[in-house]
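Q: My hope is that you can spare some time for a protein that puzzles me. Underneath my words sits a plain record pairing an amino acid chain with its backbone structure tokens. Those tokens are not coordinates but codes from a learned vocabulary of shapes. Thank you; the sequence and its tokens follow:
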Amino acid sequence: MSATLDELVATVAGQLMAVDSTTVAAEAGTVLRQLVGYFGMDLSFLRFHDQDRRATILVAEWPPRPDVPDPDPLGCIFFDSADPTFAASEHLADVMVVRPGADTAEYQERVLQGSGIAHTSTAIVPLRSGGLTTGVLGFVKFGDRGWEPAELRALRTIAALLAQLQARLTAEDQLRHLAHHDELTGLPNRRALLAHLENSLAPGWPGPRAVLFIDVDRLKAMNDFLGHQAGDQFIQAVAARLQANVRPQDFVARLGGDEFVVVIDGPSSPGHAESVALRIQAAVAEPIELGGQALSRTVSVGLALARPGRDFVSEWLHDADHAVLAAKARGGNAVVSFTEEMRTRTDAHNLVEMHLQAAIRDGSLTLDYQPVVELTSRRVVAVEALARWIHPVLGPLQPDVFVGVAEATNLAGELGRWVLDEACRQLAQWDATNPGLDVRVHVNVSPAQLIAIDFVDGVAATLAAHGVAARRLVLEMTEQAVVRDHDAALTTLRGLRKLGVGVAIDDFGTGYSSMEQLKGLPVSILKIDRAFVRDLGTNPQDLAIVQAVTALAAAFGLELIAEGVEDEAAAAILADLGCTQAQGFLFSPPVSAATMRGLLEAGDVQLRCLPARGK
């Protein structure tokens, strides 16, 4: 018989090798059918223990009961309320044989309720793993039945195989859970979210469907102050509040960091989705206790709708992301719905971003130049280099469109280097064809360039490469760029002034410079913003501001250039106030390098019929 038992064990082992969580019930049923037939039993069952719930769960049985009560008294049995026989299986360490008798009356009654069978003989074999009893394999005989030692040894071996299967399935379930859930909060992660969104947009579902993209405002400040452990606890509390303030059927996921997504189940209107967003906002804003402190943060919410069978998941989530960015741009603590206008801007932004790097490198970009003149003589004393781009799809673009994209995509440095190199190259070419030319070239500098460690060395190398004297170059930067990272900017400005390069504060008066900051900055030129020049002859406030800036420049010994001069009245007022230089359409719009060469050869800008090309 032992050889036959060995063959039985080997057969069972082979059957269990390919079992996974989706086939365990069916395959276990097949194994139980074989064991029932081999041992001449009437029925068999396999139960796995749930350690957390302290319960034993029916996995498979043979033969299947034709009529299963609802609820099934044998389906899930909690050990705290189980009869002594089932309770004993919680920590059972070896085979337990139960035969009819007065001491098993309660067990016999539970079996009678579940199966309608009385007076049974049972063998219960524990599944053991890691020193714990993880389940039981049971056999039932109507009436009485004894077991041979060899049979019990075979049952122990089969139980060990089932315990190994259970451990493997548990590990696989844990891996699947980790693959689809966020480790910190236990919420579904990006992978699970994308799968859920795909299902939500499947053809045939009613719509539209709403998704909320939620971003915690200024979480970094909390992390910096209290540490990342407190930040993690705060994120866990936010996750709990999100779940508590949506319906059970709504889907809440964490994308990572401080970003969450809520997918509202079923059709949703913009008004309903916004009401959910506002409820979430109010709930999260309530103080959260962390380490004895009551802390609070607001959230920004982006809302987007999609139609099943018509829209795509990637666009849906992308739209919500852009809506939340718009909410953040408004200062946070806002709910913003995605609109077609946003889509148009987003599409244009993406088109610019896709082609910009290639344009920088393949010569698609060009420079126009606007002269800076001496007000009294109209003599050209400098030119400002302005980038131009005819996009292959969008056509001519204003610089603020693609410069903004460059700054947002870390291309500002590359774009700035190209402009500087091209401007210096062009100045050297003008010098070669017009000996004695003594104009300066102005080049705008981005905030990213201003704080780059190697920026000053790069400027020096560019000047040397084209044989341009440092005094012929003026680098323009805004007040905001200077104050954004004041210490790093100050180091760069000092390096530029030491090099001999001129430094101009562009759009002066629109930023945040204080007298104290200005006093400490190594700059040589102030440029009055066009907003104060446009209505100079009719607006007393503008006149007062220009008077103040003029006096300020004189007090600090700085050159002063007025931008946006469009009429003779403004030019006369500026000259009377002591401003000696200006640029604007009164003198010349930005023009091509070839046209600018003609102006430089003429020496002044008396003609005003040049084609406007925009700044």
